Amino acid sequence: MNAARYRRRRRLVTAGKVGLGVGLLVWTLLPVYNMLLMALDDDADEFTGSIWPPDPNLDSFWSVWTEDYWLMKHFWHQFGNSIILGLATMVLTVLIGSLTSFSLGRMRLRRGWIVSDLALLTYLLPTALLAIPFVHIMHRYGLSDSLWAVIAAEVTFATPYAILILHQYGRLIPMELDEAAKIDGASPFQVYRLVYIPLMAPALVAVGVYALILTWNEYLYQYLLLSSTDHMTVAVMINQFFDSDEAPWNYMMAIAIIYSLPPVAIYFGLRRYMVAGLASGGVKG
Amino acid sequence: MSVSQRALAIGGVSAPRSRRRAWFGGLRGADYIWAIAFAVPYVALFLAFVVYPICYGLWLGSEPELYTQLFSDPRYFTAVLNTLVYVGIGVNLKMFLAFLLSGFFMRKGWWVKALLVVFILPWATPALPAYISIHWLMNGQWGMFNNILYLLFGIDGPIYLNSHWMGLACNIGAYVWKNLPFWTVILLAGRMSIPQELYEAAAVDGATGVRKFAHVTYPLMANLYLVCVLLDTVFALGDFNATNFVSGGGPAMSTEVLATLGIRYAYTLALPRLGVAEVMTALPLLIPLVYILMRKLRVSEGQL
Asked: B124 and chain A: CB distance < 8 Å anywhere?
């Protein structure tokens, strides 16, 4: 009697787990599937109302590849802009973040806490609320329609997090190493370059990936600061589809998929490493 | 800007910290100059691109007439209401789901792990393509969501993005979709850092499900949960992308939130000062949040 009840309960729990799993899967994949569905449809403005592509083909991807539509005449150039923006932000964030965290955490700069508090404050600042004066200032600096203006914005908003993370990770590295190098006559810059940077490599990679993904997710500053087709990034260009009279939504979705590939690839490539970093970091309870 | 990995900062690396200094007795002479030189790039960045814009913004939004103009615009009050709903429901619903799901993902089994990998996908997808896809998904005439409803239940779904409340709900849903995985992983890491011995000890004392939760999980997770909620409130308050791309602020600017309405004033209506003034009205909500979070998150105090 008891065993039967136990078995029934057990079956109920399993059913619940499977139901939850299926629900999560549908919830997660629905917008992703929608992207594919629209991109694989070749007749752009006549969606038939089916939930699978009636005639799946890669025409829209081919059109994007050959830049065969007036809005995407410069697609690969603009994709290059996005990559330049991401890489420049990554390099500058890692450089400035590591220098600052070395100065604060390793050299123990007097009143360095002021700097790390300012970084934390910037981290907590909603960037969208700062956009209007920021764009005005960029015009004043003579950086209108320049990729540098956007790089400045992204670095400004990525560096605080880099400083906080590097600062915390740096505590795991024993101070004795710095002392030994110093006794051997190394200058602070040599300690930074030969001791600090190699030991911090995993955290530097994480911070660099973070900066790259941040620029890939960001839209507002790119939209406000870049206006010419020559300097535009993919994020700004996709939005132009909404303003066009025609409805080449399949092209729009093909671009969206291509644009999503780099971060998804990076994430799944480094997944093991990123999740491990997250877990080993532990979370203050 | 995306909420994603930014918030990893809440996961503090709690290592035994070394109190020793490589530069004994504080920095002297050339070393001091080196240390300052290393910090200069960030300080310069901060002054040029954070302090200057903030001061300029404060100046732009300093005229009292702007606020009279702002408060006489009914769209502004709609945006305030929308922001409160968006942040209030979006953040709390998501965090509660993330908490429950983090419990689910603690379960063993290969398929739970495989599901976690797929579940993370929205976090890895950039905001823009994701929100554009959701925009078309929810299209009332030919969107896939209504097609599915029709196929499964034979009902014609409403035109979601033509209604204030349904449009807002779509924005919230999109925001939850994009950021749920991230917070689930953060809370999962929090749960995993609870020593298993505590649960074993509780079990020895006769605790089962509910009591284990009340006396072990809850006390150890409460602070993390609170920090996550506050942090995400700040992020949601400044979220531009979901509203801008899912509902586009429409119909007739009825689903705008503070983060998008300011931009709309400044760049669609060419009223930059009004836009800044509108943003300034978010400060009474923002400042206390930032103050509490600064106190909870600061890593430096007394350690430098």
From this structure: yes
Rounded to the nearest 10 degrees, how much is the dihedral formed by the CA atoms of A269, A270, A276, A280? 180
Sorted by where each starts, the structural domains of chain B and their CATH numbers stand as 26-60 (no CATH), 73-297 (1.10.3720.10)
**Domain A71-247 in CATH 1.10.3720.10:** yes
Q: Which residue of A has its CA nearest to B258?
A: A129
Instruction: Decide: A170 and A108 in contact? Cβ < 8 Å.
Output: no
The minimum CA-CA distance between B221 and chain A, rounded to whole Å, is 6
For chain B positions 170-189, those within 8 Å of chain A (CB to CB) are 177, 181, 185-186, 189
Give the pLDDT mean for B111-121: 88
Going from N- to C-terminal start, the domains of chain A cover: 2-65, 71-247
Helices within chain B (DSSP H only): 29-46, 52-60, 64-71, 74-104, 110-119, 121-124, 127-137, 144-153, 164-192, 196-204, 209-212, 218-237, 241-242, 258-263, 272-280, 283-297
| Residues in A touching B56 (Cβ below 8 Å) | 133, 136-137
A93 min Cα distance to partner chain B (Å): 10
**What tens digit of pLDDT does each residue of A118-154 get?**
998 999 988 888 999 999 999 988 888 899 999 999 9
Torsion of CA B54, B55, B60, B64, to 10 degrees: 100
pTM: 0.88
CB spacing of B15 vs A171 below 8 angstroms: yes
B252 in reach of chain A (CB within 8 A): no
